[in-house]
Amino acid sequence: MIEQTSELEKKPVPTLVGRLKNMNLKLLVMVVAIIFIMLLFSFMTEGSYLSPRNISNLFRQTAITGILAIGMVFVIISGEIDLSVGSMMGLLGGGAAILDVWFGFPLPLTIVLTLGAGLLLGLWNGWWVAYRKVPSFIVTLAGMLAFRGILIGITDGTTVAPTSSELAIIGQSYLPNMVSLMIGIGGLAAYFGWQKKHDLKQKSYNIEVAPSTPKLIKSVLLGVAILSFILLLNDYRGVPTPVLLLCLFTLLGTFIASKTRFGRRIYAIGGNIDAARLSGINVDKNKLAVFAMNGFLVAIAALILISRLGAGSPSAGNIAELDAIAACVIGGASMSGGVGIVFGAVVGAFIMASLDNGMSMMDVPTFWQYIVKGGILLLAVWMDSATKQKR
Amino acid sequence: MTKLLEMRQIVKCFGSVRALDGVSISLEEGEVLSLCGENGSGKSTLMKVLCGIYPSGDYEGEIIYKGQVIHPKNIADTEALGIAIIHQELTLVKELSVLENLFLGAELCQYGVMNYALMHYEAKLLLEKVNLSVSPNTLVGDLGVGQQQLVEIAKALSKNAKLLVLDEPTAPLTESETEILLKLVEALRASGVSCIYISHKLSEVKAISDHICIIRDGKHIGTRAADVMSTDDIITMMVGREMKQLFPREDHEIGDVILEMKNVNAWDKANSQIKKVNNASFNLRKGEILGISGLVGAGRTELMECLYGCYQGKYHGEIRLNGQPQSIKNSRDALNLGIAMVPEDRKKNGIIPIMAVGQNISLSAIDQFCQFGVMDNVRESSDIAKSIKKLTVKTPNPDISIASLSGGNQQKAILARFLMINPKVLILDEPTRGIDVGAKYEIYKLMFQLVKNGISIIMVSSELPEVLGISDRVLVMHEGNIMGNLPNQNLTQEMIMDCALAEGVPA
């Protein structure tokens, strides 16, 4: 009996392989899609699409949608939706611009107040969803309208400008080349160190450690990718601060999703809410926290947005929620909950930004941009359900 | 009188299981035939064959209706013939009015426009037939369950049903509602409509049937005239089977009372008029296996949900653990006190299908692997591996999706989940439903191992042999009341069934 199980453990298992294949397939499709988009646009723009300057731009454009998508993916994993994100970002940005321009608050205070306000708006949405049992679609649809209304009210429908030069740091500055290299190398070193420690710990618990050769190859590839990413951006002006923020929050989000109790519970709630409740999970509290976290990330995105625009405007962030939702779905999140990865959502945001950027460079009329983006979204989800049905 | 319906030697298999093994029934015009049998004996399967839910060709044997062999392919076929089934779960649209429900799918139209005046007139006639004095414009959702049942019957009559199948129609009804329904069945019989009546309430069965047919384990045990049978006869015929399965019974020590529940009352979450648990009190000793028996709907699961803090409707009652009164508001509270429950419906309330086996197992005990909310994945996998080994969950590795395991192994994984919190009291609701004999045996063995280690187990089960084979003591519930508290010494299935069907005063 015991022998049998150990044999089973060693054998490659079809279902796992199938799952890996499926995961890799999704990743592969995304990579192919990105390469295809890149090649197409660089051909159409005679190479200027892939210039360091445009790549830098592209990543900067990804930052806002990417950060929104990180918050959104948690909401979607928990089986809910947040349609208020765009208006909320506009409102928080507008508020921050008013504090900065009209009242001349010092930057740190503006940031703290904006982040606090983001948290509160998230809690507001979450409270209605979790404790008042109003469907999130409705709660956040109401928020979408109300937040936009408040924004227009407090700005009197005018653009609040110009923002202070300190505020511009968040969205417009670049890291010095050396600093970003140091951060990159430091981060890699920390990652390898953590992995080593993990292996040692696994050994101490008598758990079989994964073979080292594939892991080494993976590590080398990761190192090369990160360093060349930094060098590429350094070739223009350096790593833009918003991109650094995006990277930080991607790491943090991934950590929360895969390494914390909170993350595990969100997946469980989205996977089977009844079973989660009976397993002793406080479903309401966790849902509230998910919305609060989303609000916090929206506040970050809002600060980047007004810093980049140099102004708070009543129409800022219009339909940004749809970009964020599309990014999550393209990145493999399931609208029925329980499924989704942070990194996938960020890659999804990158794909959306690539399309935006490329089509703008080619002077594609705005109406075509909408049509293409809509088509891509539909295609991505259809591919997902088509592969699921085959299984 | 002429034969209206004959079902001859019906055999229906699910894989290798013969759910129906040559059952024959016959029914005359204006006759009421009752079907009796334990849960899972094949009554409902037989009715599904009759009504075309299992299409002709899916089973052996023949159905003769009004002297002709019929081959129904679906429900529409049998409805056209005048056979209507009324399921235990009502199939009315609550948001629509009585009138709209009565004519749903068969609206009276003129050029595609509904003729409300005509439907209103017809609806009134139908409602009169079933003695329901409500306006046809009332929303079905505003009616009580009993009235809804009558609407359902009126709907069947609107299709000129000659044969009405009632599958446990009185289970959700109050006594006065039941009386109205029984009177209606009498009236229908007088007007020439035949009925097949399925119920666990033997007094009802005896009162309204002409004949009673008893089915056990898919076999036809016998059909007799109702007036020559006593309730005892029916029970003996229903349960009289030999015990074939083996129960790995082991001696274990039973200690002092660890848990007490007093005066527990619970009301239906949809209809606060209906009591699901009525003043139930019991206690549980350390190292004891307490079986809870009773028919489906007797309030067993509801009572357990009150203990585990997850009952959805209104309830109150007193819970004492080791003599200390406790307030359990949700399952987290219960788990913190060392009370765990493996739920009845594995798919709906147990597994999280898209998560891995390992993650499913550690779900309730995540706190143990956390420091400041960050999980120690290595310690987690190590404990999961131990748990999988201990409970012999047959999975290639802990990282595959739990949905790909067999039912028995899923059940073991869910059991592992709740054992990980080291419970003192373990509630198992139908722990062996839908799993194979081998896995059953392993779960029984595990249960004895657990009680030997001082854990107390409450097992809710509908399988009498299991209750008798495993429990130290058996509580029997009937319509929300605890009717019996029987030590498992010289206890027989008949004694439990007597209690479960009895209509005396609560013990």
From TrEMBL, chain A:
Origin: domain of life: Bacteria
InterPro entries in alphabetical order: ABC_transp_permease
Location(s) in or outside the cell: Cell inner membrane
Membrane topology classification: Multi-pass membrane protein
Record flagged with keyword Membrane: yes
Keywords annotated in UniProt: Cell inner membrane, Cell membrane, Membrane, Sugar transport, Transmembrane, Transmembrane helix, Transport
Transmembrane segments: 27-50, 62-81, 101-124, 136-154, 174-194, 215-233, 239-257, 288-309, 324-355, 367-383
Similarity section: Belongs to the binding-protein-dependent transport system permease family. AraH/RbsC subfamily.
Chain's role: Part of the binding-protein-dependent transport system for D-xylose. Probably responsible for the translocation of the substrate across the membrane.
Protein name: Xylose transport system permease protein XylH
